[in-house]
Amino acid sequence: MLTADVVLIGGGIVGSSIAYHLTAAGCKSVLVIERESSQGKGSTGKSMGGVRAQFSTPVNIRMSLYSIPFYASFEERLGYPCDYRPQGYLFCATSEKHIAYLRTNYEKQVAMGLKNVQLVAGDEIRSRFPQLRGDDIVGGSFCSTDGFVDPYSAMTGFMSWAADHGATLLKNAPVVSISRRDGGFEIATTREFVSARTVVNCAGPWAAEIARMVSITLPVEPLRRMLVPTEPFDQFPHTAPMIVDMSNGFHFRPEARGFLLAWNDPEETPGYKTDFDPAFIEKILSRAAERVPMFENLEVNPKKAWAGLYEMTPDHHPILGESSEVPGFFFANGFSGHGVMHAPATGEILSDLILTGNTDLIDASLLNFSRFADGRTIHETAVL
Ligand SMILES: Cc1cc2nc3c(=O)[nH]c(=O)nc-3n(C[C@H](O)[C@H](O)[C@H](O)COP(=O)(O)OP(=O)(O)OC[C@H]3O[C@@H](n4cnc5c(N)ncnc54)[C@H](O)[C@@H]3O)c2cc1C
I need a surface site. Which of 5, 295, 322, 351 has the fewest CB within 10 A? Predict the structure, then answer.
């Protein structure tokens, strides 16, 4: 039987960041249990790596205000790279309604201390990116410290630092049941039994299965999300930001010598579907060529495209903190497509809550699980 003060179930970027923050705060006994033979087989390894502070709710903005500077200084702090590229996010508005929405968000973001965000005129966007079809672009917003990271490097950087400082990663160990024992927990894996005082659910899209092991019904649903990388394409600048077409949600960013294309297909339904649907190529390429006419010449190899799972909650905000029904059992779940960009803040918040019962980073009551029963959900509309 293994023993640890804190057991983190799931070794994706969220479990790894919590392991780092706990270890850095002096917690000597942290065990991460991962069912796969290596890290990154869940959502983290499938992510687009976008990081942004351009959100609509104060709590999401606050989490980005911690996380993005953290990524900017990742290598300095941890001694491992995360490949943060501050190329920005550019939202392109195609209606006055979009402009009003971006302005309201901009005012909130600036009031909360975001420095590098600005509203931009349609002409500015057209002159910076003449390759875009700009006749319907009425303006937008741009934040230069938004950008991209390499999720796999960030995840392994967090975990390696934690392991260098005393944490343990147990791989090939699916958790199959959790029992409550003497004020703590006994966790059964297919390899070992583990006893712990505190357990954190970091199982990404599989979070509801872990919660069910302690008889909690967690409203986290897997939702397939597909990404299409292009073959090398040099007619659009590779210094470009993540460009978001607000008319239909199509967005893209430079990736290697080509581009990475994304679009939220409204016809997608929840479920553990991780196969890539070849019919998606046609859907996304038509949206790409609509906004960037020269993208008609893009070459795509369907074999290189992939699918992963978003972990959706009803209000598109994560569920963080201790369960009131099962003391000692914590959630770090339901990031609704923002788990990479919010992993640093999540690590700090969970480490604070586990070690001291409090956090200064956010008002933790906003994101606790009880919000659903209490009718205190908070809606994020800036979801891509
Ligand atoms: C296509 C795509 C694009 C995305 N783009 C972005 C983006 O641009 N920016 C952003 O911030 N986020 C993005 N996301 C979301 C982001 O990837 C996730 O929110 C994030 O990776 C969640 O991290 P996690 O550690 O919670 O989950 P995961 O990385 O899924 O890790 C969970 C781990 O738990 C393990 N596990 C599950 N069950 C068990 C068990 N029973 N026992 C032991 N281990 C178990 C799994 O094997 C897995 O390794 C994207 C996601 C997808 C799919």
Answer: 5
State the pLDDT at residue 114: 98
Atom 37 in ligand 1: residue holding the nearest Cα:
203
pLDDT of residue 78: 98
Using a 6 Å CB cutoff, which residues line ligand 1? 9-15, 33-36, 41-44, 46-50, 174-175, 202-206, 210, 225, 227, 308-311, 335, 337-341
Locate the ligand 1 atom nearest the alpha carbon of residue 45 and give its number. Answer: 29
What pLDDT was estimated at residue 382?
65
Residue 119, exposed/middle/buried by CB under 10 A (0-12, 13-18, 19+)? middle
Nearest-atom index, ligand 1, CA of 50: 8
Residue 182 is predicted with a pLDDT of 85
Nearest CA to ligand 1 atom 25: 12
Rounded distance, CA 82 to CA 202, Å? 20
Q: Which pLDDT score is estimated for 128? A: 97
Residue 63 is predicted with a pLDDT of 98
From 48, 52, 309, 311, give the residue whose CB has the most ligand 1 atoms within 8 Å, as the site to mutate: 48
Render the burial of 284-293: b for 16+ CB within 10 Å, e for the rest. Answer: bbebbeebbe
What pLDDT is attached to residue 112?
A: 97
CA distance 286 to 273: 23
Q: How far apart are CA 375 and CA 196, in angstroms?
A: 32
Segments in the chain below pLDDT 50? none
